[in-house]
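FAQ
Q: What does a multi-component entry look like?
A: The components come first, one per line:
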Amino acid sequence: MTTTTPHPLNHALALTSSAPDLYQGHTTPDYWNMVGPYGGITAATLLQAVLQHPLLLGEPLSLTVNFAAAVAEGPFTLQVTPVRTNRSTQHWLVVAEQADASGAQAVTTTASVVTAARRETWSVSDTPMPAVPTPAQCAQAQRAFRSEWLQRYEMRPVTGPLPTQWDDSGHTSLTQLWLRDAPARALDFPALAAMCDVFFPRVWLRRARRVPAGTVSITMYFHAGAALLEHTGTGYLLAQARAQEFRNGYFDQSAQLWNEAGQMLATSHQIVYYKE
Amino acid sequence: MTTTTPHPLNHALALTSSAPDLYQGHTTPDYWNMVGPYGGITAATLLQAVLQHPLLLGEPLSLTVNFAAAVAEGPFTLQVTPVRTNRSTQHWLVVAEQADASGAQAVTTTASVVTAARRETWSVSDTPMPAVPTPAQCAQAQRAFRSEWLQRYEMRPVTGPLPTQWDDSGHTSLTQLWLRDAPARALDFPALAAMCDVFFPRVWLRRARRVPAGTVSITMYFHAGAALLEHTGTGYLLAQARAQEFRNGYFDQSAQLWNEAGQMLATSHQIVYYKE
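Then the predicted structure of the entire assembly, as C-alpha cells:
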C-alpha cells in the first residue's frame, strides 16, 4: 500500500460541507503569517468554496476579499451564497466566521466572486510582460522574514527585493519576481488567487523601513481560463507589483501576473493599512 | 417663500429608511444610461446608504460594487449590514434588490465597503499627475452618444476621446479628461465614487469599434479624506483610465483621479464585459 502526502495547498483548501451553502475548514500552520494565515491562502480558500459549490457555472472572473479581522488558528465556517445567476455570469457572496473569545460566531472575512462562461473573442494585451532575465538567471531568495508561508513559494527576485538595510533609503515601490509553488504544483484558480497576494508590503520597499502593515481589501481579475492555467502547469509566473499612493495610513498596490510565455493570467489590486 | 431645485446628484442619492439597516430609493431619469442607470450613480447610491447609517465610523476607504443584473426604472431597496467594526476600520455589505417580472425580490447589485478612521502619517505619491493642458485649454466635449447621464458631467477631453470613426483603427486604450459635475457641485464621497466610472468602455477606444459592453465589477480606493474633498470643492478633476488586458469577452481598466492641484483623490479598477 502506498500513501501520498497531499500538497500543502490542497491540505489548506480542504473543505467539508454539512448543509447547503455551508462549508467548514481549518487553518493550517503551513501558510501561517505573523498573526494569522497568509492573506493569499484565505482568498484561495474562499474561492475554493465557490468552485466546489454544486450550483457553480463558469470559471472565476473576479474576486474581492475583505479582511475584516485576523483569522485565528482553528476551524472556520464559510457561508456561500449564489446571489444571482445570469446567462453568462454568476454572482456570489462568501462570509467567513469563527467563534470569538466569548464563543459567539463573528465575521472574519467577506468576499464577492463573479464566475463567467467565457468564449473566444477578439483579444489583445495592452500590458506586455516586461523584458526580464529568465527564472534560471535569477537566484532563489532566502526566506527574508520568519513567516512559515514564505516556505510554500519558490521566489526568484528580479528587482525590488526585500531591503536588507532598514535605513529609510527607499525610492521605488516596484517589485518583480519569478514565482511558483514549493513544491511545484500544477496551476489552478485557487493557486493563482493565492499568488496575487505574494508581495511583501510596498511601504517596506518604498521607505526601506519595516512598519506594521496588513491588507484590508484585495481584488483579483482572472484573465486566464482553465485551459491556459493547465497549459502553464508547473511553470514560473512573473509577478509584478507597485504602489500608486501612500496616504495617511493606507496605500494601494497594483499587480500583474504572467506565465513564462508572457501571457497575462491575472491582474490584482489591494488597499493596505500601514502604521507610521 | 423661495424653493430651490436640488442638484440632480442629491436627487439621485435620496434614500429613506423604514427599518434598521433597510433603505429605499428610486432610479432617476437624470442619470439614465442605455439599459439602466449609469453604473457610477448606482455605486454612489450604495455608498450613500452606508454614509447615512447611524452606526457609521470613519470615512470611505474602499468600495467594490458588483453589477449582478440591470437595474430597472423604479424603486429599489438596500440592505445595509455593518458586518464587523474594529478600532479603526469598519466593514459593510450592501445588497440592492428590485421586484422582478414575477413580483419577487431579486438581487440587482451587491457591494462591500470599508470605512476607516484616518490620521496623518508619512505619505508619498508614486503616481504623479501627468503634465496636461489646463481645463480652460481643453474644449468641452459634445455629448457623444445618447445617454442622459452624460449631460450630468462637464467633460473636457485631453487625450483618448470617443472615436468619431468606427473603423477598427484603434491603437491605444488611454483616456485623460478634465471633469466635474454639471451643474458644478462641491465634491463629496458619493460624487467622487460616481466619477470613478465615468469612462466610456476602453474596448471602444482600443478597437475604434463600438460593441456592447458593460461593467461587471468595480473597485474604488479613496485616498482623499473629507477635508481634501472640501478643499477640492467645485474644481475640475483629471481622470485617467487605461486597460491592461482584453481577453475572451472581458477587459480590465485601471483609473486615477487627481484634483487640479495634482493631489490623488481615488484610484479605481473594473472588469468589463464586451461582445465580439
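Q: Is there any commentary attached?
A: Sometimes. For this entry: The mean pLDDT of chain A is 96.
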